[in-house]
Amino acid sequence: MVIFFQKAKNNNSGFELYNLKSTIREIDQIIVKYNYKRIIVQFPDGLLGYVCKTIVNHLRELKVEIILAGDPSFGACDLPTHQAELFKVEAIFHFGHSSFAFSLSSWQEITGITIHYFPVEANVEIRWDLISKKILSLNWNSIGIITTIQHTSILNQAQSYFNILNINVSIHKEGQILGCNQNRAVYLAGKVDGFLVIAGGNFHASPVVVATNRPTLRYDPFNLEFKLFDDNYKNSYLKQRYAMILKARKAKNWGVLLSIKSGQFPSDQGKKIIKLLEKAGKNAVTVPMYKIDPNHLINFEHIEAWVINLCPRIATDDYVSFRKPIITSRELLVALDIMSWEHFINPKIRLDSSEHLLMLET
Fold first, then answer.
1. CA–CA gap between residue 264 and residue 310 (Å, rounded)
2. Which residue from 29, 91, 113, 267 has the highest number of Cβ atoms inside 10 Å of its Cβ?
3. Which of the four pLDDT bands, split at 50, 70 and 90, describes residue 359?
4. What does pTM read for this prediction?
5. Any idea what the Cα angle at residue 361 is, between residues 359 and 362, rounded to 5°?
């Protein structure tokens, strides 16, 4: 998720919030290198204003035929691959995210369509002075720092700043966090007192305290706002999820929701989950969808509970939109008594492991 274009409250308030010069320079280099004539471009909702207008106009100046993807995009796992094939484009230009774990290399080889990712770096000042005061007030001696892709370039500033304050800083790899993947934080959880998440809004920060059992401070550089996700937040979240698991446990007839989006379709087509349910004496059916629509799912009257093998945030954040219980595949292990609740809420935090509460692997 990317924050909507807006005027910042910090010292950059008179300027655009994104550094498009470097992005446009990269676009120019790629167009020249590959001599593209027809491409499809895609933006998340937060970049469909000024950023989209500027980039589309620039591509027109380069005499490139542009197809603008119209469906919402929620990340690098959600690319317009079907549209790209229909319109026979030469490349997909995706803005606002990095490839992360969603390379789609096999699809690119089969179709001959190349995917290019443009993270679009934020042009906003990070107020380390405000952050340090907040960290010191929490009495943290060691912190892990993670951020959305728009801010990863500034993480090198953190080491030198916090060293002066005798606060140990840990950053794993590039320090990037996704709404559906907290591995960069989980890797560090065993050696930090808490996490600092630099991101607009709460979407990326809220799962970290749950996934790591470490308090998490979110700093919004656009609005100079802080929010602490502590044990109270975590316990409230876990209480809600446990109640959902108990409801789902009573179900006899299950629907296994699969996403057919480019980066979300499971390699086993959901068969592992189906086998687990059938072994437990449940009736289960695979339900592939492009977009999960709670209102549409109401029509499946015989389904008593849903388990998702796609973005976990649909179950954990949007559960109130569903009339039937909806849980993640890892929560299913608890519902089927394969995993204890104690193990679920206290995942082993090891430097060689990425197990955490929101993971989908079964």
1. 6
2. 91
3. low
4. 0.85
5. 125
